[in-house]
Automatic annotation (TrEMBL):
UniProt protein name: Uncharacterized protein
Location of region: Disordered: 93-121
Compositional bias ranges of the Basic and acidic residues kind: 112-121
Length: 121
């Protein structure tokens, strides 16, 4: 969870902790969304994992691979960080589809990242 209440769930690709001002984690996202400001419940906006599967995108696919969707997250913007276990999440009722899932109905050409950029203006 970021300080902004954005959420990223994914695989850590790399991390850099050499200098205090540039500490970061590079993540290959599987899900992203936000926490509701009042309830703090997770609202999934983008299901990258589903989109990757629908478009035959893997870590080494061509011409586009999952590495193309990496997110660089500055450590000083992280509020909380934990390892994610899908089985545990399902046991905690996080496995149910969330109300907000903008990645459904995307055109073949639109990745979850394209939708994020459109929403950002």
């Amino acid at each position: 969870t970021m300080k902004s209440r954005r959420i990223y769930i994914g695989m850590i690709h790399a991390s850099t902790f050499e200098y205090e001002s540039t500490k970061n984690i590079v993540l290959i996202p599987m899900l992203s969304g936000y926490r509701d400001s009042k309830t703090l419940k997770l609202a999934v906006e983008h299901n990258y994992s589903k989109w990757y599967a629908e478009h035959d995108i893997t870590l080494d696919s061509k011409p586009k691979d999952a590495m193309s969707f990496r997110k660089v997250i500055m450590v000083d913007q992280i509020e909380s960080l934990s390892l994610f276990d899908p089985a545990s999440a399902a046991a905690l009722s996080m496995g149910h589809p969330q109300e907000v899932e903008k990645s459904q109905g995307n055109d073949d050409a639109d990745s979850p990242d394209d939708k994020s950029r459109d929403a950002a203006g």
